[in-house]
Amino acid sequence: MGSQGDAKNGGEENMAAWLVAVNTLKIQPFELPSLGPHDVRVRMKAVGICGSDVHYLKTLRCAHFVVEEPMVIGHECAGIIEEIGSEVTHLVPGDRVALEPGISCWRCSYCKQGSYNLCPEMKFFATPPVHGSLANQVVHPADLCFKLPDDISLEEGAMCEPLSVGVHACRRANVGPETNVLIMGAGPIGLVALLAARAFGAPRVVIVDVDEFRLSVAKDLGASETVQVSTKAEDVAGEVDLIKKAMGEAVDITLDCAGFTKTMTTALNVTRPGGKVCLVGMGHNEMTVPLTPAAAREVDVVGVFRYKNTWPLCIDFLRSGKIDVKPLITHRFGFSQKEVEDAFETSARGGSAIKVMFNL
């Protein structure tokens, strides 16, 4: 996606937030690649901080992805088109767009079957060694830039990325008007999954977390009921009873947006026979869970990796008012060295911070 250097573009220097070492971000020049015929140059206006960004900052790794050289961070983003490639016909300079951050190869069997999120050649913003989007400007394929209606803000456009995870999870689990949904975890992804499940028509959505504040946010966002749980494995049986009572009916689908041994154990135990558990969060890389008894009740387990073909639906949900992501944006920062550091500290601290957003 480019390299460090004399990053002049249109007479000004293009700057980006580089992850250069553990707990070290530096705003430095970012040289853009040349504009291809199917690309656009976008001036970034809103960039959100994701849990994976914080993870990279703290440990230089996320799952099996390792940061081995300086990398521009950020992937939840929206901006304004500055320049278009010679073959681009559906966008013009001045258009406000939300960017889908993953560039797949479009040639492999996964891409051809439509599961482009599983492409082994995927180049994804701020997943090493690909540079991200916390920069003044980026160059990106035009077909991964989605025009925003006038009544949707650039911040809301940037929120299409986390919202896409919730939408893809609901599609994978077949959430609909006849499915009661349980969500494990009221972090940012659990909360967007809640919004998505309601938009998909789920009549009852119960959300579970250890944190009282997060649960109060979930209630404000439309959760039918909330259940506060502990982190102790020995409490699972009692909590399963509490969750069933809170749902009032059978749990058809559970979306585990935390991904810990305990949350997955709870999910497998509480979901009705013939129901579905969708593992969204990646808290534990390996876990020991009661799969055999769940399989004997024909509980299906499905996984989720990012998303595919979600931006148009996300934008439609926002435009129609079926989903309002604005309450999730709790903190805003500008784009200076100090503000970048403060923003990541705020996000990492958690507490009352749900989505921390940069306004560039």
Describe this structure in words.
49% of the residues are buried. The strands form six sheets. Strands 5, 9, 10, 13, 14, 21 and 22 form a seven-stranded mixed beta sheet that branches. The chain has a six-stranded parallel beta sheet with strand order 17-16-15-18-19-20, with helices on both faces. It has a three-stranded antiparallel beta sheet with strand order 4-3-8, covered by helices on one side. The protein folds into two domains: 8-159 and 325-359, Alpha-Beta Complex (Quinone Oxidoreductase, Chain A, domain 1); 166-303, Rossmann fold (3-Layer(aba) Sandwich), CATH 3.40.50.720. It contains eleven helices and 22 strands. The protein is globular and about 60 Å long. It is α/β, with parallel strands linked by helices and 360 residues long. It has helices spanning 51-59, 109-112, 154-158, 160-173, 188-199, 212-220, 236-247, 261-270, 291-296, 311-320, 337-349, and strands at residues 8-9, 12-13, 15-21, 24-29, 39-48, 61-62, 65-66, 71-72, 76-84, 96-99, 102-103, 123-124, 137-141, 145-147, 181-184, 205-209, 225-228, 251-256, 271-279, 300-303, 329-333, 355-359. Helix 4 (160-173) crosses helix 10 (311-320) and helix 7 crosses helix 8 (261-270). Strand 16 (205-209), helix 6 and strand 17 (225-228) form a beta-alpha-beta unit. Mean pLDDT is 95; it is low at 1-7. GO terms for molecular function: oxidoreductase activity, acting on the CH-OH group of donors, NAD or NADP as acceptor; zinc ion binding. This is Enoyl reductase (ER) domain-containing protein.
